Amino acid sequence: MIEVKSIIDGEEVKSDQYYYRECPYDTEKTVTKAHVANVEDLKRAIDTARDVFDNNRYNWVSDYKQRDRILFKISEKIREESQTFIELLVNEIGMPLRQARAHVNAAADIFEYYAGFGAKLYGNMKFLPNGDLIQLVKEPVGVVGAITPWNFPLTQSARKIAPALAVGCVVVWKPASYASAISYHLAKVIMGSGIPKGVVNVVFGPGEKIGSELVKDSKVDKISFTGETTTGKGIMQEASKNIKRVSLELGGKNPFILFKDANINQAIKGLMYGMFRNAGQACGATTRLIVEESIASEVEKAVVNAVKKLKIGNPNLEDTDVGPVVSKSQENKVLSYIDIGIKEGYKLLIGGKKVTSTELEKGYFIEPTVFSNVDNKSKIAQEEIFGPVLVIMYFRSEDDAVSIANDVIYGLTASIWTNDYRKALRISRMIKAGSIWINDAYTQPSEGLWGGYKQSGIGRELGLQGIEDFVEVKMLYTNVNDAYTHFKQVYKE
Q: How much is the pTM?
């Protein structure tokens, strides 16, 4: 069992209150004991961050070379500590071994990608027709409140912390309680990189208390949040009271559009990856299969055969494809949606139950589940289930496919499968989503971007766009020729 403590101004902080985290694949095992911070701890973390930024302690804001060296070091240390991170991901959130390994590498890649940006963040300048000069200067936004989720705890945290540090911001980080040990170990790696005290402060505690106060505090310049859409709406509403900057990476109900001219075999492999990685607990999961009607029967059989080959089991095993969902409450939520699908009369092709086999009965395992001939207006087609549940719908024309794909409140990702590249481009132009994969699914390179249209959020992470969310742009206007002719519009000598 790992004991987790908040880290404020470089020092670990204990508490008289704790919360315990059970292992999701063996609930008789406790994996984490986390000290619960109070509001006073949070205030101290915010004050520390404010002081570091406002007074440029350790030359943090001005010395981009220092920041670049530290980001490189964090990346190296994540790779050095990869085995520990993998074990924590498996035991604390139930991520299968192969997926955990890739997840750790992806987090290291993000820190590595943003290392070096501090030295390469340029503004712009331009001489005006009257000879005067304008300069556009990019500056760090200030104190960033980062609120991160449990489903992909390393990469989601890296996407916020790495670009924020690259440009000279300081961070107060509130990780998800389900992933406290994973987040704590990442925090320890960051602290061991040579980063100055108080640049990153980590506060563990419930979202309704610690997260809420972090959003409300006027000393925090920006909130970067990843999580559920309803929570994101609340954050946006609260932040509006003092016009706090926000970026929100929220939910998705993402289409996987499959045309009859696609490579069906490869498409089904992509669907299994896009839908069932991390037991479907992914905002970008391709949870709606929209298939051309003429190949519906063929595709449904192929989907069922592919699901049958998925191994549900202990995430410590190399051949496990689908692990448990993260908690009892998540298990109940997913099973309730499956029950809705059954009661509404949609055809259950496979799955639909909690796994009760002897070796898995102590965990939160749910069978990968597929419903077919689903009405896109139904709850299971419209709402984010965040579990291993796929719904299948049919289309006859390109316009029909686009209409179904866009007919949700979300717009995070989409996957388009066809061997006609012109068709793929036509469809991608019409789909309202932030990331669109053509003959691929759920790839997230550091060089790309992540974020969504509509109620999937505001702002973008990863790539060059990920930097822009943590800077302010300031104009400097220099009168070069002493003409001052524009003054005469108001003042005449």
A: 0.97
